[in-house]
Amino acid sequence: MTSAPSQYCKNLFVTGRPGVGKTTLIGRVLERLDAAVGGFVTSEIRDGGVRVGFAIADLLGESGTLAHVDLSSEYRVGRYGVNRTDLERIGIPAIRNALHLSQLVVMDEIGRMELCSPQFRAEVERALDSPTLVLGTLQDRGSPFLDSVRARPDVEVIRVTEENRGRMVEEVLARVERLLHDAGADTD
User: Fold this and answer.
1) b/e 18-47 (16+ beta carbons within 10 angstroms → b)
2) Per-residue model confidence (pLDDT) at position 182
3) Domain, as residue range, for 125
4) Across the strands, what pairs with 56?
5) Fewer CB within 10 Å, N- or C-terminus of the chain?
6) Which parts of the chain have pLDDT scores under 70?
């Protein structure tokens, strides 16, 4: 299921249940994309095969801890303490730099942990409002902010499932390449 794309859609998000392969899909699209890309990605932190947290990294290599089971924080999502400092130190500049230097802003992921920061939410909105294309993952959960992103006329949301994930790299890559082509034609 995808949301109906508008003719002005320039923000593309994938969503789906945890572990379905959203981040893997974004990574595979980026490996094959010939474009200037910036932004951030998140990944699991594992200890002995058990997930104990999440890392955040900009696409230039700066990284930090987004959340961890052992982190004492006033911001909690489930069993994880959220490290708002690293989120703001890495995520916000990654988005800002991508808006100035890249053809595509990658935001993997926009979810409950990332929404603990009003400054981060504002930067996400700025990216969505900008002329720069956005590719990201959106948590498959309701919240006022996430619902407002889904409802934007310039956002298309593609659902990734176990059944369709094998073909989604090609589909998302084709959509991103088309958006980049159309954006390039608009600036000529």
Assistant:
1) eebbbbebbebbbeebeeebbbbbbeebee
2) 86
3) 11-42+98-187
4) 42, 64
5) C
6) 1-8, 185-188
